[in-house]
Design a protein that fits this description.
6 strands; 45% helix; 186 residues; alpha+beta
């Protein structure tokens, strides 16, 4: 197969359906609990609908998404109206995936398999810095990954994790207000 034909067959963002008019809360994925570095992240229900899954093209993790925040987000009137044709995203069925672009704060939707293929392909070329990991001092991370971690390093990480959880709680409250304000404007 020619290189040109291979390139044409690779999954790309145009394989996803852009959801025009759907507001994406800035740092939406971080509020949901995502801590990875990928620009594009797919979210969908696992088979049976008991847990949310994220696939960022690097990792596929089930149960790491804060389900209450997700349900609050997709149940807000403005988001629900945008996702109406894809109601399985809030009904715990496994048909579609929502793909979030963390840089542009845009949303796309497609079948789960297509979404996974696209984010895996895009993960090869488009990375962003993790919202959480970037808060850890590099020297502390280096010591933690070696055998030379001091108790103060562990305490520093625990403090940052607590602050991060507090920030996530605050961001969730801001998201609630943002959704309310957005709903009143539209």
């Amino acid at each position: 197969m020619s290189k040109k034909k291979q390139l044409l067959q690779q999954p790309r963002i145009s394989d996803l359906q852009f959801i025009n008019g759907m507001p994406v809360f800035p740092q939406m994925l971080e509020v949901l609990g995502y801590q990875g570095r990928a620009r594009y992240v797919a979210i969908f229900w696992e088979e049976g609908g008991s847990e949310l899954v994220y696939d960022d093209g690097i990792d596929i993790i089930s149960g790491a998404i804060n389900m209450n925040v997700w349900l609050k987000y997709v149940s807000s009137p403005v988001i629900r109206s945008c996702l109406f044709p894809y109601s399985d995203l809030f009904k715990r069925t496994t048909k579609h995936a929502l793909v979030i672009d963390r840089i542009e704060d845009q949303a796309y939707v497609s079948g789960i398999t297509t979404a996974q293929e696209v984010v895996q392909e895009l993960a090869k070329t488009s990375k962003v810095t993790s919202f959480y990991v970037s808060q850890f001092p590099p020297d502390v991370l280096d010591r933690l990954s070696s055998d030379s971690a001091a108790p103060s390093d562990i305490q520093a990480i625990l403090t940052i994790m607590k602050e991060t959880a507090d920030q996530r709680d605050q961001a969730e409250q801001v998201m609630d207000q943002w959704l309310t304000n957005f709903s009143y404007r539209h």
